[in-house]
Amino acid sequence: MEEGTSKSPGTSGVTITAPTASRGCHPDGAGEADPFQWDTREDCEVRQILDRIADKWSLLVIALLENRVVRFSQLRREIDGVSQRMLTVTLRQLERDGLVRRTVHPTVPPRVDYELTPLGATLHTTIRALVTWTERHQSEIATARAHYDARTTA
């Protein structure tokens, strides 16, 4: 097997061998931290956090919670295609990571509100930059996709 390839299923087959930014992610524990590199192994905490915050449901939840408190049912209505179970799982994970605050009001039936924590608000700024970049470059991406599709179907 070629050096830098992974035997585990479900991976791209490529690993990054540069030093990593997170303790415990560098294969030999050595090397200087590089904030733009991370280990691709599943047990790397940086990878786990990136996997969580970069999934489509988390991005949408964080975007919708900007500067407001939202009930579960309202989030579900506003996120097209998300199931009740997937939204519940996503919110629990974001709460566990300290990005979302869940408040249960003692009413009948119970009312549950969600809002970004201060940490989640800092992430929202980053997500907004990513969305802005995407909006600026969407036509270039569409053109690149069309060229790629034309090459691969010919």
Name the features.
154 residues; mainly alpha; 5 helices; globular; disordered N terminus
Query: What does the overall shape look like?
Result: globular
Span from first to last CA? 32 Å
Tell me the Rg in angstroms.
Answer: 20 Å
Low-pLDDT stretches are 1-24
Largest sheet: 3 strands, antiparallel
Total number of strands: 3
Class per helix and strand makeup: mainly alpha
| Beta-strand share of residues | 5-15%
Give the strand line-up of the largest sheet: 1-3-2
Describe the model.
This protein is mainly α and 154 residues long. The protein contains 5 helices and 3 strands, in the order H-H-E-H-H-E-E-H. The protein has a 3-stranded antiparallel beta sheet with strand order 1-3-2. Strand 2 and strand 3 form a beta hairpin. It is globular, with a radius of gyration of 20 Å.
